[in-house]
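As described in the Methods, two query proteins were run sequentially through the folding procedure within a single session, without resetting any intermediate state between them. The first query and its resulting C-alpha cells are shown here.
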Amino acid sequence: MTTVVPVTVTDPTFEQVAALFDDYRAHYGRAPSPTATRAWLQDQLADRRISAAAAVRAGRVGGFITALVTPASLMLGSVWSIRDLYVAPEHRRIGIASTLLEHVVDSARAAGALRVSLQTETVNTPALRLYTDFGFRPVTGLELLNLPLDPRRPEATG
C-alpha cells in the first residue's frame, strides 16, 4: 500500500526525498550533486516556496511531487502548479504517479484553488499520457516565455 505524506525539512522522509530529487535531476541530464540538491530543496521547503509530498511504500520513498501556490489576482483566488513529479524506476507502473497527482489535486480542491496546472516536455509521452488520462488538458492561446538572467548558464533557459 502506498501512503502519501507531506515532506518537511524535519520529516524523516526528507533525506530520502532529497536523494531521489538528485536522481530526478540526473534523469534530466544534470550532474549529480547530492549536497547542493539537498540544500536547495531544504531552502525551498523551509521558505515555503514549494511544498512536497512523498509516496511511501514499506518505509521507502518511491516518488515525490512538488507544487506551489500562486495568487490568481484577476479572479481573487489562487492556482496550484505542479513543478516536479518523479517516481524511481523500480517503483514505476504501480500507480505511484497517479496517487501523487490525486493528492495534489485533492489538496488544491480542499484549499479552494481555482485550478491545477503543470508543464512537461512535448516529447515526454508517458507523462503526457498520464496527465491527459488524469484530466489535464493543453492550454491554447498562451505562450510560455522566458527571460534568461544569466545566459552563461544553460539551465537559465529551462
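Immediately afterward, the second query was submitted; its sequence and C-alpha cells are:
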Amino acid sequence: MKKAIQVSIVTLFLIFSSVLSAQEVGEQYYFSEDKPKVRPFRIGGKLGFPNLIGGNLEYVTPLLGDKLAVSVDYSTIKSDWFAPEEEEGYEESGDKIDYTYMEGGLNYYLFSPGKGLYVGASYGTIRIDGEMMFYSENSDRTDPGTADIDLTNSSFSVKLGAKLGGLFYFRPEVGYRFTPLPKDYETVVVFNDGYTETRQTPPIDTESSPQNLLYKGLIANIGLGFSF
C-alpha cells in the first residue's frame, strides 16, 4: 500500500509539472504552421478494472496545445443479463448483483497533441446493489436467507496511459484509486420466518484474481476505439 501511494504521488507531480511546462509553449504552438492535425473526438470501449467492461468518451480540448482532454467512462453489468431463460418449472434462485461504474476526469498528453503517453486524474464511483443468498450459521436452519446489497464507493484516481494509433486506436492504462473497494461489508440476512443474522461478507469474491484488484485500488484496463 505504501509503495502504491508513493507511485501515485509521483504521478500527480508529473501531471502538474507537465501542465506548467505546456503553458509556456502554448502560445507559440497555436501560431505555428507545423501544427499537427488532431482528431479530438474519441469513442471506444474498455475492459479491465474497475471498469470491468464498458464505454469511454474523450474530447481533446484546444487548451495547452491540444494536449488537455476530458474523459468519461461508464460501465454497467446486470446479473439478469446472464440468467437462464425462464422455462416451465424454472425458479429464480441465487445471487443477483448489479455493478455500475462511472468516472470523469482529465488526461494530459505529455509529448504529442492528443496521442501517445498521457497522465490523468479522475473521480469515479462504483455502485454494487442487488441481493445475495446465505445459509444460516445455525445448524438447525436449512432454508437460506436473503441479504440486500447496497454499496457505493467513490474515489479520486491517478493514471498513466497511452493512446496508440490514429483513426483506430489501442489504449492501455494503469493507475491507482485512493479509496479501494472495502473488503469487509456488513449485511443483514433475513430469513422467511423473520429471523436475522448479521454477516461480514464481500459483495464480490475477494479470493479470485483478477477481481481482487478492486480491493487493492489498482487500475488496469485496455481500450479500443476510433477517433474523428
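Residues 185 and 202 are 5 Å apart (CA to CA). We note this only descriptively and draw no conclusion about the first query from it.
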